[in-house]
Amino acid sequence: MSIIAANELSAILRMAPSVPASSTCRETLRVMFQHPEAKSIVVCNTHNEPVGLLMCERFFLKVTGRTGMELFYRESVTKLMNRKPLTADISAPPSLVLTSAMNRPDTLKQDSIIITSNGTFAGVVYTSDLIGGQQ
Q1: Is the dihedral of CA 59, 63, 66, 71 positive or negative?
Q2: Distance of CA 34 to CAs 5, 17, 107, Å?
Q3: CB 9 within 8 A of CB 94
Q4: Which of 11, 59, 68, 134 lies deepest, with the highest CB count within 10 Å?
Q5: What backbone torsions phi and psi does residue 2 show, to the nearest 5 degrees?
Q6: Edge-to-edge, what's the strand order for the sheet holding 87-89?
Q7: Which long-range contacts (CB under 8 A, 24 or more apart) does 102-110 make?
Q8: In which band, very low, low, confident or very high, does the pLDDT at 69 lie, cut at 50, 70 and 90?
Q9: What does 40-94 look like in DSSP terms, one character per residue?
Q10: Is 82 exposed, middle or buried (0-12, 13-18, 19+ CB in 10 A)?
Q11: How would you label 100-133 residue by residue, b for 16+ Cβ within 10 Å and e otherwise?
C-alpha cells in the first residue's frame, strides 16, 4: 500500500470558492449558487488566511431550515462556519494529512481539507482524494 508522493498534494489540489469573514450568510449563499460543483466554501481573513470552513450541504440546510432564511440572511457567516477545520500546508506529506483526516470525529471525516501555501489559502483536497492515491 503506497500513497502519492510527499510533494504531490499540489497534484490533487482542487479549487474552492472563498468568502471574506465579513460576509453575511446571504452573500455566502450567492457564492455557493455561483459554484454548484463546490462541496465547500473557505472563509478567509483580509490576508487570505483561512479562518473557517463551510460544507455547502450543511450550510444550505441550516440557512433554509425551519428557523427561516430571513434570520440567517443578515447573520455573519462566521456564526455557521467550522472554526477549527483541518488545514495543511501544500508541502505536507499526503500520508500525514490522510492520518489527520481520518482521526477527525465521524461527522467531520468527509469535510474538505484546507490547503495553504505560506499560510494563505491555496485550495482544498478531499479525504477521498487522499485515499484514492493509495494502491
Answers
A1: positive
A2: 33, 9, 26
A3: yes
A4: 59
A5: -125, 160
A6: 87-89, 113-117, 120-125
A7: 102/127, 108/82
A8: low
A9: EEEEE-TTS-EEEEEEHHHHHHHHTSTT-HHHHHTSBGGGTSBSS--EEETTS-H
A10: middle
A11: bbeebeeeeeebbbbbbeeeebbbbbbbebbeeb
Amino acid found at 28: T
CB 129 within 8 A of CB 45: no
Q: Which helix (H) or strand (E) holds 107?
A: none
User: What is the band of 6 on the pLDDT scale with cuts at 50, 70, 90?
Assistant: very low
First to last CA, the chain: 5
Task: Supply the pLDDT for residue 8.
Answer: 86
- Stretch (H or E) spanning 126: none
User: Which has the higher per-residue pLDDT, 74 or 90?
Assistant: 90
This prediction has a pTM of: 0.89
| Residue pLDDT, tens place only, 27-40 | 999 999 999 999 99
